[in-house]
């Protein structure tokens, strides 16, 4: 399996202390204005994905669905995570750039 640039960037953000994960912490970061990007796992429940999609749209926070829960958690040193938020503006822009590259390679992806 080739290295995943998106997950590598999320891991870097986590090591920099700029990631909160888990549904409660992610929601709190969005509502407090600290989240710049929210990523939900593609295998998260439809309810979870809709909840974060709607919340991020309302609060104008970038939202993507990417990777499985185990991959999302693994890149930040956790077992699995259905959602996470990146709280650093520059790091979130770097991750968004990688997500957009991934979407372009995969014909539109799944935002």
Structure explained in plain terms:
With 111 residues, this protein is an alpha+beta fold. It has five helices and four strands; from the N terminus they run αβαβαβαβα. The protein has a four-stranded mixed β-sheet with strand order 1-4-2-3, sandwiched between helices. β2 (37-40), α3 (46-59) and β3 (62-65) form a beta-alpha-beta unit. The chain is globular, with a radius of gyration of 12 Å. It starts with a helix and ends in a 6-residue tail after the last helix.
Question: What layout of secondary structure does this protein have?
Answer:
Layout: H1 5-15, E1 19-21, H2 23-31, E2 37-40, H3 46-59, E3 62-65, H4 69-74, E4 83-86, H5 89-105
Parallel strand pairs: 2-3
Antiparallel strand pairs: 1-4, 2-4
Q: What does this entry show, briefly?
A:
The chain is an alpha+beta fold and 111 residues long. It has five helices and four strands; from the N terminus they run αβαβαβαβα.
């Amino acid at each position: 399996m080739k290295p995943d640039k998106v997950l590598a960037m999320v891991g870097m953000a986590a090591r920099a202390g700029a990631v909160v994960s888990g549904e409660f912490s992610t929601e709190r970061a969005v509502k407090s204005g600290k989240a710049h990007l929210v990523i939900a796992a593609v295998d998260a429940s439809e309810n979870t994905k809709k909840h974060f999609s709607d919340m991020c749209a309302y609060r104008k926070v970038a939202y993507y669905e990417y990777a499985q829960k185990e991959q999302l958690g693994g890149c930040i040193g956790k077992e699995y995570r259905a959602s996470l938020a990146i709280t650093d503006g520059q790091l979130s822009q770097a991750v968004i750039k990688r997500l957009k590259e991934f979407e372009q390679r995969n014909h539109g992806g799944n935002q």
